[in-house]
Write a structure and sequence with these properties.
This protein has 177 residues and is an alpha+beta fold. The protein has 2 domains: 26 residues, no CATH class; 118 residues, Beta Polymerase, domain 2 (2-Layer Sandwich). The protein is 40% helix and 18% strand. The protein has 8 helices and 6 strands; from the N terminus they run H-H-H-H-H-E-E-H-E-E-E-H-H-E. Helix 5 packs across helix 6. The chain is globular and about 40 Å long. It comes from Pendulispora rubella.
Length: 177
């Protein structure tokens, strides 16, 4: 059924609008109004240096994330990343992402991390995904660990969701250098 003349929906599909940016996705009238509302830029506003954001994560959470990374490197994890999400989410300060090359390596990574942190008196609150080991999630409270197989990691692309999160440098132990 075709709409009456003059009432056709002239809104383009969502995907092309998303590619145009936030203002363009709102429509031409709203985008133009946003430009006008912004007003002229002053020289003072142009000279203001960007504010460096500092992490609100606790040192204990940072040390836990680093200990997890070191344990994962010991078990030959690949694609290891530590994302600082403190202040962006309320469930964790850090996400530790890594890839195992097989289901057996994913299980070995989770067991190695659990064993290394048990020596530091830290136990996971929860471990999910071990029967199939495509994606294992370990919750240490302020640090959440995601251990993926390569295909699953690409499918969910958590790094892409957290492009604005700061990355911690991963320390490489002496014996792995």
């Amino acid at each position: 059924m075709k709409p009456a003349k003059g009432t056709e929906d002239e809104t383009p599909h969502l995907a092309p609008r998303r590619a145009l940016g936030a203002k363009a996705a709102l429509g031409p009238k709203v985008a133009a109004g946003a430009k006008a509302a912004a007003g002229p830029k002053t020289k003072k506003a142009l000279r203001t240096p960007p504010v460096e954001s500092t992490s609100v994560a606790s040192d204990e959470a940072r040390q836990t994330a680093i200990a997890i990374a070191v344990a994962a490197l010991d078990k030959k994890a690949v694609g290891l990343e530590i994302l600082d999400v403190a202040g962006k989410v309320d469930y964790a300060d850090f996400l530790v992402l890594m890839t195992g090359r097989s289901d057996r390596q994913v299980v070995a990574l989770s067991q190695g991390i659990e064993e290394a942190l048990r020596k530091k008196s830290r136990r996971p609150l929860s471990v999910e995904g071990l029967p199939h080991a495509n994606w294992v999630l370990m919750d240490f409270g302020d640090v959440v660990v995601h251990i993926f197989q390569d295909e699953t990691r690409g499918l969910y692309d958590l790094e892409g969701l957290w492009l604005d999160a700061r990355r911690l440098s991963v320390p490489i132990p002496e014996d792995l250098r």
